[in-house]
Amino acid sequence: MADQLLDVKGLNCPLPILKSKKALKDLPIGGTLQVVATDPGAVKDFEAFCRTTGNQLVESKVEGKVFSFLIKRTA
Amino acid sequence: MASEASNKPKSMSIIVTKGTLDWAYPPFILTTTAAAMGLDVTMFFTFYGLTLLKRNLDLKVTTLGNPAMKMPMMGMHMAMPNLLSAMPGAGSMATAMMKNLIKKKGVASIDELRQMAIDADVKMIACQMTMDLFEYKMEDLIEGPVLGGAATYIESAMNCDINLFI
């Protein structure tokens, strides 16, 4: 279970990333954020975002039309 | 010296030259995202791009001379012939349709993205020459932008990893 849940369903690029960044900033280092989104572009975007910022993309999965990402704040 | 250089965050600059509702998106989407990814970001607003710094945004879009802009009409996507695009009211209609689509598709508004850019400490430079040319006053603009010219931009671009012109 993540420390925080962020629902960005229905939002389009770049809002899922921007809102996630904001939510991550409020977490302590080591804290986890679960993001649920419906933007298919978010899959590649969260990978790039985590690679670039050094945060850890623990899990990326899709259930039907909902994409779910588990991010651990490491940076 | 080498370690100092590698510790420096990556950076990006964008020259913003267009001031229509559609063309306002690429610069603000890219700068807010780059800032979220930890980059230092600079935007240089010149010519029609300067309108994006106005306190009250009243952005419009036109289908005139833009055959690539196809709007949903009668169950399909159609480009509007230039002759119709030139009719009074056609621009307002296209703008209303675009704003409606933006809302429906969960796309951020330009006001929202601009505020996010400001909150993320994106550095904004307003072109002094354009201010003069179009007779803008400082009080017409939002708070935050600094005035500058080509040399100010070039100096900042020299140190950037990514430099874009939009």
Structure commentary:
The complex is a heterodimer of chains A (75) and B (166). Chain A is of the alpha+beta class and 75 residues long. Chain A has one domain (4-72): TusA-like domain (Translation Initiation Factor IF3, 2-Layer Sandwich), CATH 3.30.110.40. Helices cover 31% and strands 35% of the residues of chain A. Chain A is built from 2 helices and 4 strands, in the order E-H-E-H-E-E. A 4-stranded mixed sheet of chain A has the order 1-2-4-3, covered by helices on one side. In chain A, strand 1 (4-8), helix 1 and strand 2 (32-37) form a beta-alpha-beta unit. Chain A is globular and about 30 Å long. Chain A starts with a strand and ends with a strand. The mean pLDDT of chain A is 96. By secondary structure, chain B is α/β, with parallel strands linked by helices. Chain B has one domain: 3-Layer(aba) Sandwich (Hypothetical Protein Ychn, Chain: A), CATH 3.40.1260.10. In chain B, strands 6-5-2-1-7 form a 5-stranded parallel sheet, sandwiched between helices. In chain B, a hairpin with a 2-residue loop joins strand 3 and strand 4. The model of chain B has no long low-confidence stretch (mean pLDDT 93). Classes of the chains: A alpha+beta (75), B alpha/beta (166). The A-B interface holds A 10-15, 17-18, 21, 39, 48-49, 52-53 and B 29, 32-33, 36-38, 105-108, 116.
What coarse outline of chain B follows from CA principal-axis ratios?
globular
Summed up, the helix count of chain B is 7
CATH class of chain B: Alpha Beta
Number of strands of chain A: 4
* Fraction of residues in β-strands of chain B: 15-25%
- Termini separation of chain B comes to 34 Å
Mean pLDDT across the residues of chain B is: 93
Please, how many helices of chain A? 2
* Principal-axis shape of chain A: globular
| CATH-scheme architecture of chain A | 2-Layer Sandwich
Number of domains of chain B: 1
- SS strand fraction of chain A: 25-35%
What would you call the structural class of chain B?
alpha/beta
Cα-based radius of gyration of chain A, to the nearest Å:
11 Å
> Which segments of chain A are poorly predicted (pLDDT under 50) over 5 or more consecutive residues?
none
Number of domains of chain A: 1
CATH architecture of chain B: 3-Layer(aba) Sandwich
Helix share of residues of chain B?
25-40%
Major sheet of chain A: 4 strands, mixed
